[in-house]
Design brief:
Length: about 70
């Protein structure tokens, strides 16, 4: 669990920084504020997608979601 926490702590800020740099290259006319706003939304989308997939995985693999444990 600690390894997952450490990886996520490095992955999401890294993804944010990468998005800002890529947007500087892809859309040079955008302000820093616009690049930060879009990068934050992209990272939030990735986090929401991962949370949804993990929730669906739990629901599909448990007979009783409330009482089952792995």
């Amino acid at each position: 669990m600690w390894r997952t926490l450490a990886l996520a702590s490095a992955f999401f800020p890294g993804l944010f920084a990468l998005c800002i740099r890529l947007l500087r290259w892809a859309a040079p006319g955008w302000s820093l504020k616009d690049r930060i706003l879009l990068s934050g939304r992209l990272v939030s989308t990735v986090q929401a997608t991962m949370a949804t997939v993990s929730g669906i995985t739990v629901v599909l693999n448990c007979k009783d979601v409330v009482y089952d444990s792995w």
